[in-house]
Amino acid sequence: xxxxxxxxxxxxxxxxxxxxxxxxxxxxxxxxxxxxxxxxxxxxxxxxxxxxxxxxxxxxxxxxxxxxxxxxxxxxxxxxxxxxxxxxxxxxxxxxxxxxxxxxxxxxxxxxxxxxxxxxxxxxxxxxxxxxxxxxxxxxxxxxxxxxxxxxxxxxxxxxxxxxxxxxxxxxxxxxxxxxxxxxxxxxxxxxxxxxxxxxxxxxxxxxxxxxxxxxxxxxxxxxxxxxxxxxxxxxxxxxxxxxxxxxxxxxxxxxxxxxxxxxxxxxxxxxxxxxxxxxxxxxxxxxxxxxxxxxxxxxxxxxxxxxxxxxxxxxxxxxxxxxxxxxxxxxxxxxxxxxxxxxxxxxxxxxxxxxxxxxxxxxxxxxxxxxxxxx
Length: 376
Ligand code: NDP
Fold this sequence. Notes:
single chain; disordered N terminus
């Protein structure tokens, strides 16, 4: 069945007809890679509110979160965020579409959308509580969307939004850094060779910071090429020993977690506002295992007690970093990309027919930048 979606609104002149079903990779249950299913009868996510923008997906990319969500990670909290009043007839989150990055073209806009018109090339990071981008179409709020960099192909552009929104939220909101305050700052990025790391190195170098990175020996060329000033090979003996010989840091962005968390505290400048920001947080694991209320309480308690303890003992701030949807932040990244200050780092590309292989690639670990899926 075909029906006209755009004829109601004069802002949308083309295309005038949209299909009602689309193809997408979905899951109907949580599990390993076998639960990923290709389907051609998924409802097209049409524009339902005046501030929504519907995008034809050209490329999507994968994040570690897609692997976790495929296995049910965050299900309790994300379901609540999707349907806070439990008003949906069907209280199941399935069929669930994964994929958090999109680069594509606007095909329809709500009546109050002011920044976009059909035909615009856009990019965005899809919030985890919304249906993802491993589909022909995705619909987002205008605030989450941004004009894509002109210099990049859709495949290149899809590698950036989710890690960019995460890195900016972590470095700016939690780390207290910004374009104008970074030039005299020493920043340590652990796990510098992955998606968040390769983006963060370039952003911080563009802001003038001094950047030290931990990564495997065979990623040294990559991170140095992106601008890293100093590189510590964590596979060559004691990483703490190597880092402790260096001057202390103003900000640490931790993409690795685990024992790094304890070690990092001693590597920050004491009593000078230095901040440790970790992206590896137990928040959604807590809400999954303990339920929403207890999980949130427990996570809040953990964060609070670690923050107090570190402030009292070493005069450093301990913080959790989170992805946050932010189209205007992507606008800034878009101009940095077009100015040649930030390059996409696409390690692997897969056609839409090979989404399970793309997940497998990510699951095998050792990312060197991003894995992208070409949807159109
Ligand atoms: P990637 O998988 O793209 O990158 C991880 C990188 O870390 C790989 O290059 C890996 O390469 C390297 N690595 C692994 N172990 C170590 C180690 N001990 N020391 C240094 N490097 C190491 O992940 P992302 O960059 O996308 O994300 C980073 C982390 O942040 C993930 O845990 C992710 O779940 C989390 N995250 C959290 C968000 C939030 O909202 N809280 C949002 C986005 C990400 P190799 O193994 O070869 O060394």
